[in-house]
Automatic annotation (TrEMBL):
InterPro entries: ExbD, Tol-Pal_TolR. This is Tol-Pal system protein TolR. Gene3D superfamilies: 3.30.420.270. The gene is tolR. It is a single-pass membrane protein. The Tol-Pal system is composed of five core proteins: the inner membrane proteins TolA, TolQ and TolR, the periplasmic protein TolB and the outer membrane protein Pal. They form a network linking the inner and outer membranes and the peptidoglycan layer. Belongs to the ExbD/TolR family. It comes from Ahniella affigens.
Amino acid sequence: MANNRRHKRKLKAEINVVPYIDVMLVLLIIFMVTAPLMNLGVDIELPESNAKTLSVDSEPVQVSIDAKGNLYLTLGKAEREAIDEETLVRKISAYVAQNPKVPVLIGGDQSIEYGKVFEVMVLLQQAGVPKVGLMSRPLEQKAK
């Protein structure tokens, strides 16, 4: 019996990393497949090159940005009012909750940076607006 105790297997003090590598590779494949499916941008529908006037059933919500980057809000037939970003999100989310199909348009001064318009789109997305339109002036026809 004493002989059996001497030949008992010794414990290994190593970690078997093969299962951890397998799990890591499976996770890597999952992330590689799902990463392209994640959409982190703002969904907008840009007008085509020869844009036409939109026909809408109700008065649109208009968010205007002047050359200095100040925001203005026009809700339906109400007068245009100067507004800050927090109040914009609060007012538009309440208005869109009551009128879910109301069109929301952004009009930016030609001299402002695109980044400012993008920031306003993000604010509108936070307010729960499903679609945003961009306002523009029609091109003047050149004399022939």
